[in-house]
Write a structure and sequence with these properties.
26% strand; alpha/beta; globular; Beta Polymerase, domain 2; two-stranded parallel sheet
């Protein structure tokens, strides 16, 4: 099935929930209202004609100053059986950056959603363990937001765990290879 046919099938199954479709370099994106994301994903997974059995990635986009709503959650899916690909895009408002988790549909979404939360601050309602995955738990802010300070991290005055990491690094130095 061609990607545009898949997009049309989504439109027919969820009338009024598809905000539009777009295509770039033969990759089709379906723009959805966020309230029905979970239901659309469930259909894509369970419909034998579609069988999207592999969630390739979940990522986020920050459109600060470019468009409203500010954020977007993007889901890339692939069917190993039918060898077709589709992308879902969901607008996420800055005031309430929450989307329902798709971990119950694809267990692999667990780490992707955690990374998106960690880097952009988009929360995934119903996620079994939504906590930081790349940064320390006590880190403040979300580094992929366009309003995150460009100076970056400057030492212990910014993050109180800095001295602990430096001390641990010194202790583990004896286990480095190539010295």
């Amino acid at each position: 099935m061609e990607p545009l046919q898949i997009a049309e099938k989504i439109k027919q199954a969820f009338p009024g929930e598809v905000a539009g479709t777009s295509s770039f370099r033969d990759q089709v994106s379906v723009h959805l209202k966020k309230d029905r994301l979970y239901d659309v994903c469930l259909m894509l997974r369970e419909d034998p004609e579609l069988d999207f059995d592999y969630l390739v990635d979940v990522c986020g986009v920050d459109y600060l100053g470019k468009k409203t709503p500010r954020f977007e959650a993007v889901y890339h899916m692939y069917s190993m059986t039918h060898k077709h690909f589709i992308r879902l895009r969901v607008h996420v408002p800055e005031e309430d950056p929450v989307v329902r988790s798709v971990v119950p549909i694809w267990q692999g979404a667990n780490w992707h959603e955690r990374e998106c939360f960690d880097m952009l601050g988009i929360r995934f309602e119903g996620h079994p363990d939504l906590r930081r995955v790349l940064l320390p738990e006590d880190w403040e802010g979300h580094p992929l937001r366009k309003d995150y300070p460009v100076e970056g991290f400057s030492g212990e005055e910014d993050w109180h765990g800095y001295t602990e990491v430096v001390e641990l690094s010194r202790k583990l130095k004896e286990f480095e290879w190539g010295n």
